[in-house]
Design goal:
Dna Topoisomerase Vi A Subunit, Chain: A, domain 2; 3 domains; alpha/beta; globular; 8 helices; 4-stranded parallel β-sheet; Helicase, Ruva Protein, domain 3; two-stranded antiparallel sheet; 44% helix
Length: 201
């Protein structure tokens, strides 16, 4: 990398800090932006600067927004009695793509991971409990990831909500549509059987 000009070296270094982007990928991206598409480089720089200045966290659910409240929290047609708790903004986007959920969200921005030094104070847990205590929430869907940390976080929050008499649920987990049984792991199979549905005729 020493053969590149200092400005390009800095660009490569900054790009390599992005998730799933190593030095080789960062070098290819930087080269493309500078050598092949300077217009894209300029518009990308402007878009990054604008986003950094204008995008913030929603004051209620902690999704991304340019206003104090995001478009979902401002939408009066959503059901405020059902709250879906997710780890990060992209999880919310994935659920919204399905088009089935019509309630509101709460984004934790982290999981309970003691081995990485992340406890209850490292996520938006206090804000969640304040919302539940002060609102009309009757059900909380704990849609954290199906990992050890995601399950531990859901269990931890579920116990806190149970003390408040709030119904807590977890999305069913199992075999994906089009998946073959022979390729499913033991945990996926056991969860699929535990969350089985009755056929309606």
């Amino acid at each position: 990398m020493l053969v590149f000009p200092p400005a390009l070296q800095r660009l490569i270094k900054e790009l390599s800090k992005l998730p799933s982007v190593g030095e080789k990928t960062a070098t290819r991206l930087a080269y493309h932006l500078i050598a092949n598409d300077r217009d894209l480089a300029r518009s990308l720089g402007a878009a990054l600067q604008q986003a950094a200045q204008e995008v913030r966290l929603c004051e209620r659910c902690f999704f991304l927004s340019e206003e104090p409240l995001c478009s979902l929290c401002r939408n009066t047609s959503r059901d405020p009695s059902v709250l879906c708790v997710v780890e990060k903004p992209v999880d919310l986007v994935a659920i919204e793509r399905g088009g089935e959920f019509k309630g509101l969200y709460h984004i934790l921005h982290g999981l309970w991971a003691p081995l990485r030094g992340q406890g209850p104070d490292s996520m938006k847990l206090k804000e969640l409990m304040d919302r539940v205590r002060g609102g009309s929430v009757s059900e909380v869907i704990l849609a954290t990831s199906a990992t050890v940390e995601g399950d531990a976080t859901a269990l931890y929050i579920g116990r806190m909500l149970a003390d408040l008499g709030i119904k807590t649920t977890r999305p069913a987990q199992g075999i994906p549509k089009g998946g073959e049984l022979e390729y499913a792991d033991d945990v996926t199979l056991s969860r699929a059987f535990a969350a089985r549905n009755t056929l309606q005729f």
